[in-house]
Specification:
By secondary structure, the protein is an alpha/beta fold. The chain folds into 2 domains: about 290 residues, FAD/NAD(P)-binding domain, CATH 3.50.50.60; about 110 residues, 3-Layer(bba) Sandwich (FAD/NAD(P)-binding domain). The chain is about 30% helix and about 20% strand. Helix 4 links the parallel strand 8 and strand 9. The longest helix is centred in the middle third of the chain and has 23 residues. It comes from Rhodococcus globerulus. One of its GO terms (molecular function) is oxidoreductase activity. Keywords: Oxidoreductase. Its EC number is 1.14.13.-.
Length: about 500
């Protein structure tokens, strides 16, 4: 579709978050004036962009899918990237959301107009206004590439795992992989057979446990198709197990040694070299950083044609990389597996609120929001996958659907009461976040002795949700109008 001059609700991003919200709005009102803009040429978000070899989800697909759009077509309990991407495209078509998406349209700026109670928005396809603006750009949408000295002088090929260069042939090459996080553990085992040698640069080791993945037999898929309640029951069972796991991992520290025993046994089985095992054994409490799921990562690092460097990378030369001990490693290609920028989302630099400051300026490196969804001083702005909504145990889709209910209720409240603007009271937001940070103090993410991307520039955990996901859903079950200042035409009410 074409970009309109005005829209009631503009959603930025057409991944799980944006499409989930749009689908919820359209279920209430198929004629709702809602438009999504997507900077890429298709929907799908991170599952469209991340196409590196071996890319898969580390949450069971029974849970990592929309509750309103079950599928019996998954090939494995942990779905691969092409399947999730295909699933999202099918959901877009089936729900009508796809007809509301303006593709190849990137947000450039959004400025709140206090007098008109509108957002003035500039995109790569032109300008428009919107009554409500939803930032659904995700936490894993902008790759982070460290600026190592000499990187611009490197004569070989470089790329980030999130923007995989499929045109580049890795056969026979010497490859440096920078990072040992969730993407590296998936793609490194896939490329070692092609490469002459792979050198993996590790800053901090991670706890790795087996991934209980299996293929779904035809009889199980047929059951899901003929008896949808069976698939719903499996989803509920997986959800319950994951909630118990989350409680154990984050709060019940007395059970953590059991998880650590599993991880250490997995390491002993797959890595025979005791020196390498020492390099791969973390010195922090399991669960403090994201646990990695893999059945072949550790054994891959034990291969003769793979080296693990645990002194980090300090610089790049014309034909190699230099580690923390000053040793140069000759390589042909550098692949960055260095993650994203969840505590510094780029979209925050593009949104200017009531005071004239951008969201990034107001946050100053430490994001906070009310219920992870609204920010005082930014009327009619809603965040999907906002601060303190990330999980270490379950599916973010569950959180996104909870937010979609809340935002949809807020939009309906505005229509029902004839409101032009809603702005969460600052005192309410501050008190809410005090409670969140108080709960996080008791969790393994805060006191587990590690440095993780959960902790922002101010030393706050502005990423994780501290407790059960059903608590979050209950909090966002209904829009709490009393905690917002509302504006009508020519009048303001508290």
């Amino acid at each position: 579709m074409k970009l309109p001059e005005h829209v009631e609700t503009l959603i930025v991003g057409a991944g799980f978050a944006g499409m989930g919200l749009a689908a919820r709005v359209l279920r209430d009102d198929p004629a709702a004036d809602v438009v999504l803009i997507e900077r890429a040429a298709d929907v799908g978000g991170t599952w469209r962009d991340n196409t590196y070899p071996g890319c898969a989800c580390d949450v069971p697909t029974a849970l990592y899918s929309y509750s309103f759009a079950p599928s019996a077509d998954w090939s494995h309990t942990f779905a691969r990237q092409p399947e999730i991407y295909a699933y999202l495209k099918k959901v877009a078509a089936d729900t009508g959301v796809g007809d509301r998406v303006v593709l190849n349209c990137e947000l450039e700026a959004a400025i709140w107009d206090e007098g008109m109670s509108l957002w003035h928005i500039q995109t790569s396809q032109g300008a428009l206004t919107a009554k409500a603006l939803v930032a659904a750009t995700g936490a894993l949408s902008t790759p982070k590439v460290p600026d190592f000295p000499g990187l611009d002088q490197f004569s070989g090929t470089t790329f980030h795992s999130a923007t995989w260069n499929h045109e580049h042939d890795l056969r026979g090459e010497r490859i440096a992989v920078i990072g040992t996080g969730a993407s590296a553990v998936q793609f490194v085992p896939e490329i070692v057979e092609e490469a002459t040698h792979v050198t993996v640069f590790q800053r901090t080791p991670a706890w790795v446990i087996p991934r209980a993945d299996r293929s779904l037999p035809p009889i199980q898929k047929a059951l899901y198709t003929k008896v949808p309640a069976a698939q719903k029951a499996v989803r509920g069972t997986v959800y319950g197990f994951r909630e118990a796991l989350g409680a154990a991992m984050s709060h019940a520290t007395w059970v953590l040694p059991a998880f650590e025993m599993v991880a250490k046994a997995h390491l002993r089985r797959q890595v025979k070299d005791p020196g390498l095992r020492r390099k791969l054994t973390p010195d922090f409490t399991i669960g403090c950083k994201r646990m990695l799921l893999s059945n072949d990562w550790l054994r891959t690092l034990d291969r003769a044609d793979v080296s693990l460097v645990d002194s980090g990378l300090v610089s790049v030369t014309e034909d190699g990389v230099v580690d923390g001990h000053g040793i140069e490693h000759k390589v042909d290609t550098i692949i960055f597996a260095t993650g994203f920028t969840p505590t510094e989302p780029p979209v925050a630099h593009l949104i200017t609120g009531r005071s004239g400051a951008t969201l990034a300026e107001q946050w100053n490196g430490s994001p906070s929001a009310y219920k992870g969804t609204t920010v005082s001083g930014f009327p009619n702005l809603f965040l999907m996958y906002g601060p303190n909504t990330n999980l270490g145990h379950s599916s973010i889709v569950y959180m996104l659907e909870s937010q979609a209910e809340y935002v949809n209720d807020a939009l309906n409240t505005m229509k029902r009461e004839g409101l032009d603007a809603l702005d969460v009271n600052e005192s309410v937001q501050v008190q809410y976040n005090k409670g969140i940070q108080h709960e996080l103090k008791r969790t393994v993410w805060n006191k587990g002795g590690c440095s993780s991307w959960y902790i922002d520039a101010e030393g706050r955990n502005s990423v994780q949700w501290p407790t059960f996901t059903f608590t979050f859903r209950s909090l966002l079950g209904n829009f709490d109008r009393e905690n917002y200042s509302a504006r009508k035409i020519e009048s303001v009410e508290a």
